[in-house]
Amino acid sequence: MTQHPILRLLLLLPLLLPGRLLAQNDTVNIQVDTRTPKGPMQPIWAWFGYDEPNYTYMKDGKKLLTEISQLSKVPVYVRTHSLLVTGDGKAALKWGSTNAYTEDSQGRPIYNWTIIDSIFDTYIQRGMKPLAQIGFMPQALSVKPEPYRHHWQPDNSYGDIFTGWAYPPKDYKKFAALVYEWVKHCVARYGKAEVESWYWEMWNEPNIDYWKGTTEEYIKLYDYSADAVKRALPTARIGGPEVTGPNWKDAADFLKAFLDHVVNGTNYATGKRGAPLDLISFHAKGSPKLVNGVVQMNMGTQLRDIDKGFEIVASYPTLKHLPIIIGESDPEGCAACSENYHPQNAYRNGTMYSSYTAAAFARKYDLAAARGIHLAGAVTWAFEFEDQPWFAGFRDLATNGVDKPVLNVFRMFGKMQGQRVQVSGPLAYDAFRIRDSSVRGSQPDVNALATADAHSVSVMVWNYHDNNSPAPATPVAITIKGLPNGQLRLQHYRIDSTHSNAYTVWKQLGSPQQPTPEQVAQLEKAGQLEQLAAPEQLTAANGQTVIRMIMPRQGVSLLQLSW
To answer: Tell me, what CATH number does 166's domain have?
Structure first.
């Protein structure tokens, strides 16, 4: 066993302090066995999305997309709303438009792909791929075209936002023609092979007000749209239904009705049995609240949604092999609801969001494996909000071009490769306990996700609790087995209050809303993934080594051993 001198001192420090905060037997022991693979490290984390499509090609949007594309070894998929919404293309909170479809005075279609091309070009130029959302309804096709444009505000001073864009079409064939022309245009612009690698999906959360039609009308729209996609490009991949909250009865009923139709229903567009389906999608969200002034997360709510969705899909023998994409998978539901007006969202700027993300993604792998389904992706519905106050408490990955701690979790995921391998030990939580009761006990969730390939091992370790209260750090000992004997190189990356954390630095600077160029440069540097200490050499004997460290509450570490 080899310890870095500083880590050894940190481990002993609580024993030297009066009124010791920790005892020696408080150490959490984690076992990682590289000889026990658990399946490939499917990059389910390499999926992102947001409400406002026009942010895509704006200054900070382009910068963030570049950073997201660079953190992943595989192409990142991006999902965004409102790609078919009528309007002038000006961005606003929870709003966007492309003006892709209008009609002349005779009711004849006018297609305009300029803004959609700007969005997709931005992705393709960075090696990213669209999870292309077919929605929402162009004004000229809506059965209720007025009112159409909404003006959502984060202080709740707005009326109904589910306006004309949320309604069914007055002519399903015209909508199908729009989808057909859109796919044909993409093939002409980007090439058949590129578009074959995308996913197309139908609408968003049709079991709530995002869809003002019936379940059957959604199914009809899906049939017409899927047929149009396949006529334009037979090898294209399309799916749905993007319901939210599969653990709710209405969402479960909607998902089952959709899947029943895909298997046995009469297709509205073709008259044949069933409908094409290449992916299955649903959403899952947590539910934070304030308890005595402290933010309390609810990861269990999110995991119950995920597990119920998996359970429903697994009940269809002819469909359970299809890729599942959790189209939005987040700690709660409203990215644009800032903590200024929604104080339960005060987890977003700091390390609680990053530790939640690490712990939640690890459990998605376990739930998928338990249900025997194919989880292809889980979309983090967080991006950036252009020209908003610094660290305003939106659910975003960056603020004014400066990365938040949560983005560094994805940088950690991007460094993990190979097979997932076994993690075990006398650990307080697993996916099923969190699903059933969240993380509410006296002990935090200190656990790990590990991968291994021929020349490296990566171990992500977190110290998470639903309650964002001050708490002592936890000593952790990670025993890694199945290593080659001899010298190993250790790199230790960390997210905590003083590492990979631009929010802490911003507060230290006095929380400036107009930082100087020098301060911006300092914040940008602080927003990058940081190593806890310089790389060091360890020695493995008898095929194993032990790494000891102190993990602060809501901290995340990535340990990488290479040889």
So the answer is: 3.20.20.80
Helix and strand totals (H; E) in the chain:
13, 25
Last residue of a domain, one of 357, 388, 415: 415
Domain that holds residue 452: 5-39+418-562
| CATH number of the domain residue 524 falls in | 2.60.40.1500
What is the pairing mode between strands 323-330 and 456-464? unpaired
Q: Is 205 a catalytic residue?
A: yes
Contacts of 315 (CB under 8 A, 6+ apart): none
Kindly tell me the sign of the dihedral angle through the C-alpha atoms of 332, 362, 66, 98.
negative
* pLDDT at res. 154: 85
Cross-strand pairs, 464:
445
| Cα dist from 223 to 87, 138, 207, 534, whole Å | 26, 18, 17, 57
Residue 286: strand pairing partners: none
Domain boundary among 385, 415, 445: 415
| Paired sense of beta strands 456-464 and 556-562, if any | antiparallel
Read off the pLDDT of residues 236-290 as tens digits, 9 standing for 90 and up.
Answer: 999 999 999 999 999 999 999 999 999 999 999 999 999 999 999 999 999 999 9
Which one from 52, 201, 205, 242 is the annotated catalytic residue?
A: 205
303 & 388 share domain: yes
Write down the pTM of the prediction.
Answer: 0.95
- Please state the domain count of the chain: 2
